[in-house]
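Quick entry between incubations.
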Amino acid sequence: MMKREVAWRVFAAEYNSSSMEMKGEEERAPSYIITPLGALINRLFVIGVMTDVENMGTTEEPMWRGRISDPTGTFYVSAGQYQPEAALAMSKIKPPAFIAVIGKSRTYSPEEGTIYVSIRPERIAAVDERMRDHWVLETCKLTLERISALEDALEMETPSAEEMVKLGHGKSLAEGVVKSLPHYQGLELDRYRTMVVDALRYLIPEYRIEAEVPQSVAEVPEEIEEEEKEDIDKEEKVLGIIDKLDKKGKGAPWDEIVEETGKSGIDKSELEELTNSLLDKGLIYEPVLGKMKRI
Amino acid sequence: MEKEELAPHVSEISRVLKGKVEESEIWKELDTYLNHYRVSLETAKRGIVKKFGGDPSALMIGTRKPIQQLGLNEQSVDILAKVITVNEKDIEVDGKQKSILYGIIGDDSGTIPYTAWEADRYPLRRGEVVLIRNAYTKEWGGQPQVNLGTRASIEQQPEESVKLPEGMPRAFPDAGEVKISDLQENMGGVTVTARILSLEKREVDVSGEKRIVHSGILADETGKVQFSAWYDFELKPNDLITIRGAYVRSWRGIPQLNFGERSQVTRTNIKFPSGADLAKPKTRSIGDLERIGGGIDVLVRGTVVEVRKGSGLIFRCPECNRVVQKSSCRVHGSVQAQPDLRIKAVVDDGIATMTAVISRKLTESIMRMSLEESMRLAKEAMDPNVILEKIDEKLFAQPIELEGNVTSDEYGLMMIVSSARVSVPEVRNEAGALLNQLEESE
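Done. Structure below.
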């Protein structure tokens, strides 16, 4: 019997940047997605916000698709008739909702050289915000571990999994890093480090809105600071309005938002900027075209 | 000489003779040379090859190897070494008394224990340098041991032909000072400083011989380990001791420390955690346990990624405790099955994974539901699976903290859980600390 595959914790941004696959050669041998940071993923565990879920198939042959967002991006999840339990669970989810998924890595390659990754869930369940936050922290720590493994590998003349294990890295990470390194040329580790920093800030309430404010506020001319603050105040206002207009829980209609914010002196183009910023921060989303909803 | 010991030589002769002569023929010849003419194995091999028109120089005349390169199962090997210790011992073989020699030999690459199975044939003396021909090695405690069987021979060599490095002698490649959490199967020459947490005296049967063993649990700040002392060192509970020359064996992946007559035990008086401090389980990562193979009384943190089938309300055979389906035990047939509760959960920390087995009592307290209550619920639903579903609902994706003993086999790690805590840790402070750390290093 084969040993159980570990459930990797990766952020969506890392997972979705994967362009490398390792197919099992023998029958029933597991396949893996190798991420830029060397995670060798056959199975993964994600907690995030399910922002939409839809049956793309038929009632007889359902194919449920959903999006789960984390602080860095979006995971795509799909479950069909061969995952009856997960499909049933997905059909019952009312987005937005905190969701935990354990599943297998899947790839879709519409043309040579292009790979889209998704998750085929084995089990999917509603969880709470605290569990999501815990997942984010754990994923930060494990991402940092991968970054440090890559740094160690970059120091080596000819990186080998054996040497990596001697440095204290796990066996499959060691193997993954050695494989990923030649594939992902010109990898910017700093980008991933910044991603972790942003994700950590996401966990600390004081940063939640201020995250967009330049870090060294003192160096910023006063007017700009004022403007930034004003923007944030306005964002808060827009959020409040979206909340208020979302009477049926299906989102606030765009036209009504424009009308309502106009009364507060926010014109349409400014409103668009503000909602874009809110979308970027993951505070709102578009459940259907023309509607905005708070997460 | 044993037949299996001779077999490689027969195939070697056959190889040199390019298969011109049947192996059965070679066996017969070898038997004649060795047992009738009583010549050495080397002479016999050369003689046979020559007799059949082969080239004797094509024979590998016992490969000579430095001690460090000796494998666990050398069939015939030559060793040039210095005799470091010689001990004589009487043993009984097939009802006959027989004297053997054992001790340690060494060269510049290392040292190794040896046994010479016929004392009178091998005039080994301490400090002498000898060329041992046609020795074989056997595995003992994961390390090779040199054996001098009936066909081995020794030749004295000038004393200066082997120089031992400084710091010799040592019986095994020395693992040296090791913390308990780093003990691994087959380590030898281990030095451990630890406190005795518990101790008992047992009588065990070692190949027909009754022996007293003092066993118990030792602990340092990294964890606990079971030990067996095969000699009476007059150990007492709570003693703080340094053991030198111990070795490690594993049971289902759990390392166990052994020491005996040839080991040294000294009391030390250094600053060391108290017995009460040491009694608390120490945190270990699942990956670490996977590398070592297991451990006793460890604390593990992870997330429940699956509640396995076979969790929840189960029924057991009253005879053999096996889980039964439909009141029918596959050994005892139709039985009055006894209800039980348990959880088998897969716990994963993103690096490694293990199965945790949680017994009835703990299951009842985690689920805040007694066995009777779960029986009632199952009856109501007319389906015992409702309990499995409830457990899954409660535990899936939950961070969990477990204490217990971890064993391993070909399916991976398994913990028999003695204590469990299901709770989501507060993340803010840790996230803040990690953030500061990252910003400082920028």
